[in-house]
Amino acid sequence: MTSNKIRGGALLARAFKEKGVEHVFTLAGGFCNPALEGFMETQTPVINCPHEQIAGHLADGHSRITRKPTVCLVGPEGFANAVPAMLEAGGERSPVIFVTGSSTLKRQGAGGFKEIDDVAIAAPLVKYSEQITDGERISEFVDRAWIAATSGYPGPVHLSLPVDIMFSAFADDSGRTERPYKRNHLPPPRAWPEPAALMRILNLIETAERPVMIGGHGVWWSGAEEKLAAVCAQRRIPFFNIPYHQKLLAQHSEAYMGLADFHQYHPSKPAIQEADVVIMVGGRLDNQMNFGNPPFFPEDQTLICINGSDEEVEFNRAADALLLSDPGAFFDALGGLNKRWSPWFELQVQRRKVWIDEWSTYLELEEKKDEKIHPLQLSVDVQSAMRKGDWLVFDGGNTHFWSEIGVSIAAAKGAQFSGILHPGSYSLLGVGVSLAISAKALHPDKTVVLISGDGAFLSGGLSIEAAFQEGLPIVVVIDNNGGLDCISQQQERLFSNGKHFATDFRDIPFHTMIEGMGGYGELVESRDQLVPALKRAIASGKTACLNVKCKGVISPIVAATSDKRDKASIE
To answer: Does 157 map to a domain?
Structure first.
C-alpha cells in the first residue's frame, strides 16, 4: 500500500480532527500555515482572533461551557502573548491544548528565527508540555497531550511543533503501525471508590448532626452537578460553591446557599464553622479554603475531601479523611443513606433569606443618597432585566465581587440563567469579553450580558472585535468608576496619607468606541436610565456597550483584605 505525502501541519490537523476537536482559535501566523491548511482541508472551524491572548481565552471559554478540549494555535512570539491564557485556563482546569509553531529544530540552540524555549516556559502553567522532534510521532503526541488534558484533574497542555517539521512532508499514515491504532476520543478513566474506604466516609457523614457540602472544579469536569443538586436536596445537606470556581448549581437551586466565602456570602461563616462535618468534593485545600486550617475550618470539626484524581488527593493532605472517588460515584453512594438533615438545612435557607433582605434594605438606603449608581444596584438591575435562560458574565475587581452578591439577590427575585461565567482562581482581569463571546457562539439564540469593570474592559476589551467579526452580538455593561477602584480603595487604607496613587483613568467614552466599531452604545448616568438602555441595546441586535457612571464602593471582600494589608498579606 502506497502512502500519500502530507505536511506535518496537516498531520497535526488530522490528528485533532480524529479526536473530535470542534473549535480552533488562532492569530494566523506564517509558522502555523501548514496546520491552518490542514484545518481548512478537514473542515475544522478556525476563528482568527485580534490577539493570541484572546485566542487562548476564547478556547478556554469554549472548553468551560462544552467540557471538551479546544485548540489554541499560535506562533513562537504569539506563544508569549498566550501565556496569560494558559494561566487562566490552568486556574479553571480547562483542557485547552496550546500548540506552538516554533523555531526550526535543525538549528535549535543557534539563535533561530523567533527561537524561544516555549516548552520550559509553559511547563509550570500546564499539565503537560512537550516538543515534537519527529514528524512520524505527531499523532502520538496529540494523543498523549489529549489524555493528559482530559484525565484525572483536567487542565491545559502544550505542544511545540518546530517549523521545519510543520512544513516537511511525511506519509499520511505516519505513526500508525503500533497501538493505539484508533486514536479517537475515549471517555477518560474514572476512579471508583474502594468499598471499605467509602463505607468509612459514609459512616462519618451518617453520624453527623450538622453536615455541610462544599464543591469545586472536580464536580464540574466530571459532569456530576445534577447528581450533586439531587443528593443535597434529597438528604437536605446545604451546599456552598468554592469562590472563583465554575458555578455548579443554579442560583435558584433549592440546595444552593451561596459561596463558601465569609465576606462575599456572610451566612457561610456560621454554617461552615458550626458544622461538625464538612464534605468538600472536587476542590483543593488552597488559599481560598485557608489551607484547611482554623478559623475557616474549626479544629474540632471533621473535614472530608472527596477527589477524583491522585493529584487532588495528595494536595489535600490536611483533610481528616480522604477518599479517591469520581464525584458522581460518591454522590450515588451518599444518596443511599437513610437520613435527612432538614432542620439544619432550613436554618441555612432562612439565613440566606435574611442576608438577601439585609442587602435589599442596604440598596434602598443607598438609593436615597441621590448619588451615582451603586455597583451592586447596577448588577441587580441588569440581572433583573434579563430573560430566563440568558447567559451572565462578569469581570473585574469590585465589579466581580459585587456581582457575586448581586446574583443571589437577583435569584431571589426570580432570575434564572443558563450559565454564569467569570475569571477563574487567578482572578485574571480582561477575560470577560472572550467568555461572553464563547457563550454567544455556543448559544446563539440566547442573550449574553457582560458586566465589566472599566479596568477589566481596558485589559481585554479589544477582544470585542471577534464579536463583530464572527457576528456574535453581546451586550457589555461597563461599571465605570474612573479607575482601578479595587486597588485605590486598598491604597487609601494602607498608605499613611490616606490617598490612592497611579490608579485613575480619564473619562473614557467606551460607548462611542463601540459605536465607532459598528455597534450600539449609550451613556447611562442615572439608575432610571439603565434598564431602558439595556432593553434598547438587546433589541438593537448589535454588539452593544452601556457606559454606566457608577460610584466607587468598596466590596466586603476587599474591605476584609485591606484590613490585613498592614501585615503584607492578602491571605
So the answer is: yes
- Residue recorded with cell 438609593: 367
Same domain, 157 and 238: no
One domain, residues 134 and 251: no
Cell of 120: 520550559
- The CA distances from residue 240 to 99, 171, 279, 360, 555, in Å, are 36, 53, 10, 21, 20
Chain mean position to CA 230: 24
Instruction: Give the β-pairing of 419-421 and 448-453.
Output: unpaired
Q: What b/e string do you get for 327-364 counting C-beta neighbours within 10 Å, with b at 16 or more?
A: bbbbbebbeeeeeebeebbebbeebbeebbeebeeeee
- Whether residues 304 and 380 share a domain: the answer is no
Q: Which residue has the cell 505516519?
A: 174
CA 301 to chain centre: 30
Candidates 284, 274, 438; CA nearest to 351 is: 274
Summarised one tens digit per residue, pLDDT across range 183-203 is 889 889 999 999 999 999 999
Cell of 537: 441595546
Domain assignment of residue 385, yes or no: yes
Report the SS3 class of residue 398.
helix
Per-residue pLDDT at 108 exceeds 80: no
Task: Give me 363's grid cell.
Answer: 440598596
User: Would you say residue 363 lies in a domain?
Assistant: no
Report the distance separating Cα 65 and Cα 76, nearest Å. Answer: 28
Question: Across-strand partners of 278?
Answer: 212, 303
Q: Is the pTM of this model over 0.85?
A: yes
What are the cell numbers at 426? Answer: 487567578
Q: What's the Cα-to-Cα distance from 377 to each of 257, 364, 407, 530, 551, rounded to whole Å?
A: 21, 9, 11, 10, 11
Q: What CATH number has the domain bearing residue 295?
A: 3.40.50.1220
Structural domain boundaries enclosing 217 = 195-349
Q: How far is CA 307 from CA 193, 237, 322, 341, in A?
A: 10, 19, 8, 24
pLDDT in tens, 326-336: 999 999 999 99
What pLDDT digit, counting tens, does each position of 422-437 carry? 999 888 999 999 999 9
Do the domain assignments include residue 423?
A: yes
Q: Are 284 and 260 a contacting pair, CB within 8 Å?
A: no
Tell me the C-alpha distance between 2 and 194, whole Å.
51
Average pLDDT, the chain: 92
